[in-house]
What does this fold into?
Amino acid sequence: MNARAEVTCIGHLIDGQRVSGGSRLAEVFDPATGAVSTQLQLADEATVQQAIASAQAAFPAWRATHPLKRARILTRFRELLEQNAEAIARLITAEHGKVLADAHGELQRGIENVEFASYAPELLKGEHSRNVGPGIDSWSEFQPLGVVAGITPFNFPVMVPLWMWPMALACGNTFVLKPSERDPSSALFVAELALQAGLPPGVLNVINGDKEAVDTLLADPRVKAVSFVGSTPIAEHIYATGCAHGKRVQALGGAKNHAVVMPDADIPNAVNALMGAAFGSCGERCMAVPLAVAVGNETADALVAGLKAEIARMQVGPGLDPAAQMGPLVTRAHFEKVRGYVDIGVQEGAELVVDGRGLRVPGHEGGYFLGPCLFDHVRPGMRIYHEEIFGPVLGVVRAHSLQEAMDLIDAHEYGNGTAIFTRDGEAARYFSDHIQVGMVGVNVALPVPVAYHSFGGWKRSLFGDLSAYGPDAVRFYTKRKTITQRWPGNGVRESAVFSFPSHR
Ligand code: NAD
It folds into this structure.
């Protein structure tokens, strides 16, 4: 019997129904074994247009729905996410490869975004001023945009969609989501839970696809805004194309986050924090720390020794193995790219202190496992310093001073996250005040803002003016309207006024 025959084929969620659409297929793999787990229909133009039409038809009634009713659906949806947490986490692990505890953590962060979105009735309250002129009142209100699209990356298949559509919907928009074609099942499952929670058909549609689907969304005038999270070259394309089509766009891109370790830092704690930040989720996080900048050679030597010892204790294995701390990379192509960067680092003259290239996980020989890799003496000018590797590769850079470390960070093209490890409050304050990066940790390696703050990098890590989720999302998914109102008294005759302002 052909094993392929047992592989399920998934399509799209349009108008509240699972539908087929598109003749091209993509394969989805189990990264722990390398086996094909699912086939995915890639939406063609007509399928995407069907989803947009469904979202547009659902918009007037959804816009008119009492915000509290919209919020109640999100509250029920949050309960369903909690009840189905294990199933969702397993779907994430099955296609992404991250360890189950990390998949649960991702879901938890997504749930917090749903929770924040359910406060939308409070967040949407406008601003009111009485008597701005004689008998005149003025107020601003925040109206939904219409149909909004979200395009999301593989590395947080549940959390990043939940950064977007719950708040967009809570603000009265309808949505078309295009998840990553590498691990699409969990986003689809979660969207179906939202329908179960009471979301009317058409308010949330999910289309699976690739560039063809994305470009159709970008060109269609019915789509008023696009939220994108992914790599920088694609983010730049999305931003330029979406803006050229007159849309509001926020496009979050890649990263190369540096953590500075000062000579006075608590080194064992810094080492542990860096282990999780560099190797958690196999380094496939936009807030991962692939570069540690040690200030002073003694700091660097202690850091490298500590990291080397901790790496020797690390457990790498399939994400469903409770003992595993790190799973496989997402696809064979990505595995080869990351392993290729390790080769490049060696050719460039960085010192490979720990080489994870030979790792074998018994029983999982077809999986995309790369062991943790540690480089010392990484320098600017090297590709492994500048380029986003997005794998379990940590480079130690040696600097002489805090200022030199900060100059390196500021000169880098990305500015997503950064951290400083120190016991010196003055250094920490100077660093967080001046560094040209959007999210800063002080003795916190992964300073990912909570759901009621917003998430966004600087420089080529974000194209657009508003960050993701939190208060910025309310502004991104609404447009301000300011109304000025006056009711002249009965029978009062008013003469024409030709100078401005007309009501002094
Ligand atoms: P990616 O850019 O390859 O894909 C992201 C999305 O864009 C996917 O839905 C994909 O289908 C689509 N896409 C890919 N190529 C396209 C093209 N040519 N035209 C139109 N659409 C296209 O990113 P990825 O590999 O899925 O995710 C990893 C990247 O995302 C890393 O660079 C990471 O730093 C970044 N990321 C950033 C953040 C952030 O908040 N800044 C968060 C998570 C991930």
